[in-house]
Amino acid sequence: MGTRHYLRNPLWFFIDLMRQPIWVSVWVIALMIVNLAGVVFWSEPLAKLIVVVFMLSAMLMMGLYAVFGFERILGLGHIFWIPLLWYLIIQLQQTEGPFAGYLVVLSLVIGISLLFDIRDVWIYLSAKRVRP
Question: Is the pTM of this model over 0.90?
């Protein structure tokens, strides 16, 4: 008989999040707020895309958490942010006013997050290659 693997309840993610260093919890909450702030600009099609991509990323992250737990591999949950960031930067050139300000803040936050994510996934995968 093989080893049985059980999926974690994705809602436990938030419990595990609160067990992390405070800066991690604050950063994740800030990411959620900045992404969901797109609803303020709901009349903009791009704002709808931002919220949809955030929801897809959240679902992917919850799936990854259910399988792996609170591990560095969770950075893969933001994979959809790579094309989104590229698109935001292009659209920013055609946007003005408060929505443009929001896109700048969102782009910076996503960009910083992706740097952490790339590092975390690299460390996770590198550690898995070393182990037998």
Answer: no
Long-range contacts from 123-129, C-beta under 8 angstroms, 24+ separation: 123/72, 124/71, 124/72, 124/73, 124/75, 125/73
Kindly report the number of other CB atoms within 10 A of residue 55's CB atom.
Answer: 13
Query: Coil, strand or helix: which one is 91?
Result: helix
Is the Cβ–Cβ distance between 17 and 25 less than 8 Å?
Answer: yes
Per residue of the chain (132 residues), give pLDDT as tens. Answer: 555 677 888 888 888 989 999 999 999 999 999 999 999 999 999 999 999 999 999 999 999 999 998 899 999 999 999 999 999 999 999 999 999 999 999 999 999 999 999 999 999 999 877 655
Q: Which two tokens stand for residue 112?
A: 């910083």
